[in-house]
Write a structure and sequence with these properties.
Elements: E1 4-8, H1 12-23, E2 28-32, H2 41-44, E3 48-49, H3 56-75, E4 86-91, H4 92-97, H5 99-108, E5 113-116, H6 118-123, E6 133-138, E7 142-143, H7 146-159, E8 163-165, E9 168-176, E10 179-187, E11 192-197, E12 200-203, H8 209-212, E13 222-232, E14 243-246, E15 251-255, E16 261-265, H9 291-299, E17 311-322, E18 328-331, E19 338-342, H10 348-365, H11 385-390
Parallel strand pairs: 1-2, 1-12, 2-8, 4-14, 12-19
Antiparallel strand pairs: 3-7, 4-6, 5-6, 9-10, 10-11, 13-16, 13-17, 14-15, 15-16, 18-19
Helix pairs in contact: 1-7, 1-10, 3-10
Length: about 400
């Protein structure tokens, strides 16, 4: 296929998009990354994935993601999808409110298992739950380790002919009428401005989306929130835990491939974070002093073995949440040739295989194999985005759906 495609952003979304395009026969694919491949939110991700989502579109999309993660385990050198199961843990009130969702999951063929109280400990010996706590287990779910997935996916797409330019900042779009036909960038490596021609441009950044869109008259109503995760030193035995989205403590916890425990949250720091310019680097984010105390207090009874365990390292990243807590995947309205694949709240890693598939279908076919109307950017055309962006929001104001 002769179509020339440029992808802005070299995280897991951008690389999965490149993979899907190349697999569908596109020969000329270029990724432009302002820092290093995977150095933004992708490298900070917990990598947890479940298909037990909140509406039909997302359930179908995540089921496809799980298909693709299983495929990647077979075709990416050095990567394995850790299919330990993903547990959505809640109190009885929350569980009862989810009865309609379980009906939806049944209808769509999303498999799950239900455990109550100490049944969870019998299933996963390192996990504790109260008698009135319910666990909905997605047996196909699990997690990916970012530090193995990112280099494995990069190697794969480079072998497929994808060109990658790192340390290169997007300065502007070029147009022919209302159609984008290229980019102007600045290469920090070569210390010069560069230009690219294209048939399609896909913006696959996350927290930086509106900064990239600053030259055009379209923005996403989105807010970024600081997200922190902590990892223990290794235990001397195998851990018996699923990946857990803990709705009781509004945090998550999972094991790692080398028998550590990873915990993460955004709840301790609920006010949105504003990125002022394109030069911002995620390494500039500062840890919040109460984050670890919040998580230790939350999980000392949930996973008792962490209470006195020494902590090894800590990372700080951003989650990017739209006003309707739904990803943005599809063509930008009124501008031909420009597409968005962004703003996945805390589930970017879980979405990345299917997001790449959907946006590649938009570019090649003009439609998607899954009904993805709810993801389209045009849903915000009549929304007062300017007013929304001018206000400060707290995480609790938004209906964030984890992973």
């Amino acid at each position: 296929m002769t179509k020339k495609v440029i992808i802005i952003g070299g995280g897991v979304i951008g690389m999965s998009t490149a993979f899907q395009l190349a697999e569908k026969g596109v020969k000329d694919i270029t990724i432009i990354e302002k820092d290093n491949i995977g150095s933004g939110s992708s490298s900070q991700a917990a990598g947890i994935v479940t298909c037990l989502q909140w509406n039909e579109t997302s359930v179908k999309a995540r089921m496809k993601s799980l298909d693709l993660f299983e495929k990647f385990s077979q075709i990416l050198d050095g990567y394995t999808f850790q299919q330990v199961g993903c547990l959505n843990l809640s109190d009885k009130k929350d569980y009862d409110l989810g009865s309609d969702l379980r009906d939806l999951h049944d209808e769509l063929g999303a498999k799950y298992e239900i455990y109550i109280g100490d049944e969870l400990t019998k299933k996963f010996s390192d996990l504790k739950a109260e008698d009135d706590e319910y666990g909905i287990l997605d047996p196909r779910g699990g997690y990916s380790e970012a530090h193995t997935y990112i280099p494995a996916l990069r190697k794969k797409i480079e072998n497929m002919g994808v060109k990658i330019f790192e340390n290169e900042e997007v300065r502007n779009f070029t147009f022919s009428g209302n159609k984008t036909n290229g980019l102007i960038t600045f290469s920090k490596t070569e210390n010069k401005e560069k230009s690219y021609n294209s048939d399609a441009i896909i913006c696959a950044v996350n927290a930086w989306t509106n900064l990239i869109l600053s030259p055009i008259d379209f923005k996403i109503p989105m807010k970024n929130f600081v997200h922190e995760r902590f990892v223990t030193k290794p235990f001397d035995r195998e851990l018996f835990l699923p990946a857990i989205n803990d709705r009781v403590y509004q945090s998550y916890i999972r094991g790692t491939e080398d028998n550590r425990i990873l915990v993460g949250t955004s709840q301790h720091n609920p006010e949105n974070f504003v990125i002022e310019d394109k030069d911002f680097n995620i390494n500039e984010l500062h840890p919040y002093p109460n984050a670890l105390d919040f998580l230790k207090d939350s999980f000392k009874n949930r996973v008792p073995i962490i209470e006195n365990k020494e902590w090894d390292y800590h990372t700080v990243g951003l989650i990017s949440v739209t006003a309707d807590a739904t990803p943005v995947i599809g063509p930008v309205p009124n501008i031909e040739g420009l597409y968005l694949c962004s703003n996945f709240h805390s589930g970017g890693f879980a979405y990345n295989p299917v997001a790449g598939m959907l946006i590649s279908e938009h570019v090649i076919n003009g439609e998607t194999s899954i009904d993805s109307e709810s993801y389209l950017p045009r849903r915000f055309e009549e929304f007062n985005t300017k007013e929304y962006l001018s206000k400060t929001h707290k995480l609790e104001d938004l209906e964030v759906k984890r992973h």
